[in-house]
Amino acid sequence: MKPLEIHNLTVASGERILLSIPAASFDEGVMYGIVGPSGAGKSTFLRVLNLLEKPRSGSLSIWGHKVNAAELSHSKGVHLQRQMAFVAQKPAMFQTTVFDNVALGLSYRGVPRSRRAQLVRKALDLVGLEAAAGRKATSLSGGEAQRIALARALVLEPKLLLLDEPTSNLDPANVAIIEQIITRIRKERAMTVLMVTHHLQQARRLSDQCLFLHQGQIIEQNDTEAFFESPRHEALQDFISGKMVY
């Protein structure tokens, strides 16, 4: 059983089609890099998968649970949403401690306090910020905040991790730290990861497979090496070579 399948997905804003994906599927334990020009629909794609945005039409099959995404209510979708975690490009920190920021999702799920503490410490250790547990989250640097956003997602032990440009606003040192965390996650946890990135070499370093999203469509999907070395579609060839693609 594939953890995630997409069927006839369409997302629109008025008359403008933002996404049109007839079919796509993702395997368990695989990391997918999603690349493409600005405005291709990459972030919208992740938000629809996380049930944060409703498409005009289409269905999702999430670990065998097939749902009409266009008609899915919050109450009927929350049990599926809780199997995923989403890390935004610009994470918001709540006006509490680092510990409480990471523990918030567990609290909403009714996890007992003692178990909550164990999971939070484990997540903070994973991102190298266990010593920061008592600090105010709003005092963190940009790189630290992004690491806490990752911890906040990982503490939920999701089956599917969705990363929307997790290093786009960071300096090279913090990019390296985030990439090391992602690599460690993949070694220690068998989860499916979808990562949107504007950095082609980052996608190449971290991903098992890559997708090229262009004008709202998945133009090409392949194993990472073949994706970069032998791109089939002319638009992807141009994009990899650095030509303007829009």
From TrEMBL:
Q: What are the ABC transporter domain coordinates in residue numbering?
A: 4-240
Q: Which UniProt keywords apply?
A: ATP-binding, Nucleotide-binding, Transport
Q: Which SUPFAM superfamilies match?
A: P-loop containing nucleoside triphosphate hydrolases
Q: Which InterPro entries match?
A: AAA+_ATPase, ABC_transporter-like_ATP-bd, ABC_transporter-like_CS, P-loop_NTPase
> What GO annotations for molecular function exist for this entry?
ATP binding; ATP hydrolysis activity
Q: Which PROSITE patterns match?
A: ABC_TRANSPORTER_1 (PS00211), ABC_TRANSPORTER_2 (PS50893)
Q: Which Pfam families match?
A: ABC_tran
Q: Which PANTHER family match?
A: ABC TRANSPORTER I FAMILY MEMBER 17
The protein in question is named ATP-binding cassette domain-containing protein
Source species, please?
Answer: Paenibacillus validus
Lineage of producing organism: Bacteria, Bacillati, Bacillota, Bacilli, Bacillales
